Amino acid sequence: MALSQKPRFLNLSTPLGDDVLFLTSFSGNEEMSRLFTYQLQMISDDNSIAAKDIVGSNVTFSVELADGSRRHFNGFVNRFIAGDEDREHRRNYRAEVVPWLWFLTRTADCRIFQNKTVPEIIEQILGDLGFSDFELQISLQHKSWDYCVQFRETDFNFISRLMEQEGIFYFFKHADGKHTLVMTDHKGAYIDCPENQVDLPGDFSAIAVKDHLHSWEHHYEFRPGKWAQTDFDFKKPSTSLMTHTDTIVDLPGVDKYEVYDYPGEYVERSDGEMETRLRMEEEEAHHDVVYGTSGCKTFTIGGRFRVGKHHNEDEEGKSYVITEIRHVGTESLGYETGSNSAETDYSNSFACIPDAVVFRPERRTAKPMISGVQTAIVVGPSGEEIYTDEYGRVKVQFHWDREGKNDENSSCWIRVAQNWAGENWGVLFNPRIGQEVVVDFIQGDPDRPIITGRVYNAEQMPPYDLPSEQTKSTIKTRSSKEGSPDNFNEIRFEDKKGEEELYIHAEKDRNTIVENNDTLNVGVDQTIEIGNNQSLKVGGQNAQEGTQTIEVLKDQMTTISRGDRSTKVEMGNDFLELKMGDCKVLMDLGKSETEAMQSIELKVGSSSVKVDQMGVEIKGMMVSIEGDLITDIKGLVTKVQGEAVLQAKGGVTMIN
To answer: Where is the Gp5/Type VI secretion system Vgr protein OB-fold domain (predicted)?
Structure first.
């Protein structure tokens, strides 16, 4: 006899058609903020159902309720198994059914989200995958993450850990043909079970009443009484970000037990206060839990019910929310039991918490840690060569980031470790666009990168050929913007034996300030070549020793604004040679005095004036002595002689 879905206690709808697969039993686990899983046991007259026709397909199965309506369970087949045939030559099949959210366990990525809240990140991920059957019922003010990294983790793990961190829990609402993911952070999102009031019979022999509670165990667990955490914000390094929250659970002595954690992953105290409260609520959600069993077919995760009759009167009238449930349902085919009618059964085991308690998911999903360092390329706006903020931070493009555009939006601002960092003093070398940098991660956290170094690569080679010039060490820069290899500043060390050198190159100006003494010792020679002018200002004395050669290619001017100038040669000669041009000494005030121990001689050709200790001798082809008024020549002996002619002439000539 051909099988039919109607009338049956268990019903199954698949893309294969109405009367192809028949559900004989199912079991399933559901939990708040976890994926549900249903195991279906089926039978069919079709012995050759192809897996490709059902794996990945949406199916709905249902259980008949007392009033003839049906409770639906919906999901997608992620596993299909063809089993043996029974004695009626019908094949047994098994399937596993999961929510559409399960498909996020089958896609993993490495990507960066910037300036988004967790709900916005979730919406983007689900939307990119084409899913729309979800609701976001959010009441808390979730912070915007400047930088949030998904690193080598499935989309499901990524959004799960974000929701766990920010206290967002989720559950599923089932309907015929679909199920809806509900994500929320408040207890107002709880839904009412159709069986919103259930009884626990006082006589446990009355368990045959299927839609009642069958068992009820109230568990109370000691949890920490305080939660505290802190973090550090480099923009406010002296500001304490410590926050703490006390539990509302009333247990004696609980306040002595505190959980303290670091880091809290926040930089604003208000965000820290909210996160601390969420951690405390996470603890409180597991303090008061009821574990029970029932035959209530409409019990569902996030569903709220009220306790009616109960053998413990303290429980009567209280409302609870289901956080865990395991379903088991069966319907035999008549021939299996030798009966003309099918045997049916349904039961569940569940956990629930008082509906006054807001559920917070446990943080089970581990955040990926990056052990070791990575490298990345410094990026910035088009046309720029250096791009930093006021803290010297830069932006990078990670090699694994396939969504970044190699521009100023590729990452957050990343701090750069320098060899020294003090208050307006230290070392500062800004990474430049295109350079490859070494990136470490604080405590291995992908969300907290820090640049610790720089490395060369085939496009950014060292400034000297290696290994041929391996004895050279240098600090060499490049002029910006649009500097060429010929535009640079450099301090270079050559350590090759016998050719040691310290080389300094200033592309434009060099300014040296010495607050106290400056000592220069030159073992052999010193050559100073000045292409234009040189100015030297000495506040006291200018003393020099040894041989000094100064070559000035153009003008040289010495100005002493106030004070004296003296040149002293203690032993040796003083020689001034003027090859072309005039020599002029001009004194606006004062006198000129020249003194020599032996002689002073002035020469022009064969003419000369010589002054020595014996007297003054004037020689020349012609010597003229003229006084405008009087010429007086005196001497103890005065001799005037003209070897050819001696002429004395005057208006009156007197010779005595």
So the answer is: 389-456
pLDDT at 119: 98
Q: What is the dihedral of CA 65, 66, 67, 72, to 10 degrees?
A: 0
Residue among 203, 269, 186 nearest 232 (CA): 269
Residue 38 and residue 138 in one domain:
no
Q: How many domains does the chain have?
A: 3
Q: Of 324, 297, 292, 287, which Cα lies nearest the Cα of 311?
A: 292
Angle between helical axes of 155-165 and 118-128 (0-180°, round to 10)? 160
Residue 340 pLDDT class (50, 70, 90 cuts): low
Query: Is-cis flag, bond preceding 263, omega within 30?
Result: yes
At residue 201, the pLDDT reads 78
Query: In percent, how much of the chain has pLDDT > 70?
Result: 93
Please report whether residue 70 resides in a domain: yes
Q: How far apart are CA 532 and CA 244, in angstroms?
A: 71
User: Does 84 share its domain with 169?
Assistant: no
Structural domain range at position 149: 102-185
pLDDT cut 90: percent of the chain above it: 66
How many alpha carbons fall within 13 Å on the CB side of residue 35? 19
- Helix (H) / strand (E) containing 127: helix 118-128
Q: Provide the token pair at 182.
A: 């509900």
What's 68's DSSP letter? S
271: helix, strand or coil = helix
Residue 236 is assigned to a structural domain of this protein: no
* Cβ proximity of 43 and 26 under 8 Å: no
Q: 């021939």: which residue's tokens?
A: 335
Other CB atoms within a 10 A radius of the CB of residue 583 amount to: 6
189: confidence class by pLDDT, cuts 50, 70, 90: very high
- pLDDT tens digit string along 247-297? 999 889 899 999 999 999 999 999 999 999 999 999 999 999 999 999 999
User: How many residues are there in the chain?
Assistant: 656
Q: Is the pLDDT of residue 590 over 90?
A: no
Is 472 found in the same domain as 374? Answer: yes
Whether residues 128 and 172 share a domain: the answer is: yes
pLDDT at 5 over 70: no
Residue 211 tokens, joined: 């839609």
* Contact criterion met (CB below 8 Å) for 39 and 28: yes
Pairing of strands 226-229, 258-261: parallel
Distance separating alpha carbons of residues 184 and 168, to the nearest angstrom = 5
Least confident of 326-335, 428-437, 539-548, 568-577: 539-548
What average pLDDT does the chain have?
89
Which pLDDT score is estimated for 651?
Answer: 64
Residues 458 and 402 in one domain: yes
* Cα end-to-end distance, the chain, whole Å: 181
Residue 537: predicted pLDDT:
83
| Same domain assignment for residues 72 and 91 | yes
Q: Is residue 116 included in any domain, yes or no? A: yes
The enclosing domain of 471 has a CATH number of 2.40.50.230
